[in-house]
Design a protein that fits this description.
10% strand, 9 helices, 43% helix, mainly alpha, 5 strands
Length: 197
Amino acid sequence: MAKDRSDPELDCELPDLPPELRWREWMRRIEAVLFASASPVPRDDLARVVGHGASVDLLVEDLAADLEGRAFEVTQVAGGWIFRTRAIYAPAIRAAADVGNKLLDLSEFDVAVLAAIAYHQPITRDGLKDIFGKEISRDLIGRLHARDLIGTGPRSPRRGAPYTFVTTEQFLVAFGLESLRDLPDQEQLEDAGAPSS
């Protein structure tokens, strides 16, 4: 969300409301902002619609509790919060909307390259070649870039200054991660059946 879009007519403090109704109104404002946003909304943006000193974290917790039993939930990803349909309803959505499964149409090798970028970023195509023992095609990099899962990072300080690749906010959203610190470590991957490197 854009910075400094506060409406001068928006009364954030709501001094005329009793505390319980004030809290409920702040929750509804957060709900409205999350509902209207297609991307994760950071804490600072949500703080603009509630009273000074109100805990955004507690308001979001109460909103999440309010949504228990509903088909969607509040999820913290990529440094903010977003509404997501609960995973149990994914088959119903695919059947009704014929949306397919956009991320799952990546090949196993595409996902492996994406994981290598996530764990070794910023990384060049030569760096990926060192990991996989073969050249990584520009087409594969283009597919990941077209899905906004990766972006261009800083130029490498090596001769020729090749481009590097990094993961994006959309990568975090797509995989339900709040930050890259939430990536599983090597031991977790091996426990899940991934081959060790």
